[in-house]
Amino acid sequence: MSIKNAVIISSIVCVFILSTSVIGSIMLKKKVSKSTIVYKGKKADEIINQNVNDEKKNDENILVNENNSRDNINEKENKNGEEIIGALSNVDKKKSINKDSSSMDIAILGEMMMGGQVTKNLNYVYSTAFKDVYMEANLADFTYTNFSTNITNLDKIENAKSKYLVNKEVISAFRALGIDCASIASDHIVDFPGDILKNTIDTLEKNDVFVAGRQDTPVYFEKGDKKIAIVSTNSVIIGTNKNYTKQDISIYTKENLEKNIKEAKSNADVVIADIHWGREYEYGVTDKMREISMHAIDSGADMVMGSHAAGVYPIVQYNGKPIIYSTGYLISDSDLYVAKESFIFNINVSKEKKINKITMTPTYINDKREVLKYFTYDEQKANEYLEQFNRWHLDNSLNSSIENGKIVIRF
User: Fold this and answer.
1) For residues 65-71, average pLDDT
2) For 155-190, how does the pLDDT look when each residue is reduced to its tens digit (9 = 90+)?
3) What are the strands, taking DSSP E only, across 260-383?
């Protein structure tokens, strides 16, 4: 081959590589843009009005069945309406007074499993389960959860697997909590035919809830000059991997997690890996959970968290990065005591674009019906719960303290 031909071929190869790189960069920017939730602030008035209406609807359902007395209905409507307006007005007021515009907060709620007995207890008025914790969820810039339940268009549900099926009224709960993003990377999300999962995704998206947990799709939260990415995936398989991949649900593999974390890291300041893992009916961190979390951090994650595993486990650090092995349940119909106790985790990113604080607000699932701040349910047990976790955190060499009925960990 002549020198001239070699130069021509080399030039062509260089142009091809450069073109491929440019095209790849453009495609990645478009992908990231489609997966980015930009901070716009919570619409407090809309949340207030929605939840007053939901509370009224629930009271009508209950009281009409009891005695069909309109006087009693109106009296209770007014009382509950005042309670909700008061609580949610405080959300808006505190937000405007205490909000630090230089930082960024994400509220991480535990896994939501609202079918079965929960649905029966709430009589399909799902938002009423959360009125004691509206404020905690809505004070954050963004609110995120793992949603392990499918949504049907049926008005009533009669199904053997109804534990993992709700109707479209569940959106009232998402509005009440101000949820911006829900991961569907979970084991039971494929319990039903594909058209039901499609309906689940469509219903969430039509109501401005971004759906995370799909294959090769990190989600980004952007506020000002800060961007946080969450890489969500499922490692608890029912049947075969194909059951999930054919529905575009992210399935954990070591290689895929590393690839998605690195992609997210190139486009965000902070990357959180969210893994659906562990044992649902047995308390304890598994070797597999430790292995995955360390690999995630070695791949570039700034924090690891997980769902599915029973209860909440103390936070640990690996290479200076926090690991929340289990965020527990926000709500479920589990009979396990450790499944009833949980926390709302608030992740704060500083103006230096680093995770500098995790605040944990204790909650309790009461009678498969409502989520209470733990102190509302039982003050003594709440204090014991906080002291136990704070002691564990101190044993794990974390800068942990109890402040105003919450655990605060500083980094």
Assistant:
1) 41
2) 999 876 688 999 999 999 999 999 999 999 999 999
3) 270-277, 303-308, 316-318, 321-324, 329-331, 341-349, 355-366, 370-373
Write down the pTM of the prediction.
0.84
Token digits of residue 115:
């079918």
Tell me the C-alpha distance between 243 and 307, whole Å. 20
Element containing residue 400 per DSSP (H, E): strand 399-403
Radius of gyration of the chain (CA): 23
DSSP state, residue 370: E
Q: How far is CA 370 from CA 14, 121, 127, 183, 334, in A?
A: 62, 9, 9, 22, 13
Task: Give the integer Cα–Cα distance in Å for 191 and 238.
Answer: 9
Give pLDDT, residue 31.
78
Closest CA to 339 of 297, 387, 286, 279: 279
Q: Where are the domains of the chain?
A: 1-34, 101-410
Average pLDDT, stretch 224-236? 97
Q: What pLDDT score does 325 carry? A: 97
Contacts of 327 (CB under 8 A, 6+ apart): 108, 109, 110, 111, 146, 305, 306, 307, 312, 342, 343, 345
Residues 116-151: tens digit of each pLDDT: 999 999 999 999 999 999 989 998 999 999 999 999
**Cα–Cα separations (whole angstroms), residue 144 to 152, 181, 344, 386:** 22, 5, 10, 23
Could you name the CATH architecture of 101-410? 4-Layer Sandwich (3.60)
The tokens describing 10, both together, are 């080399």
CA distance 129 to 241: 34
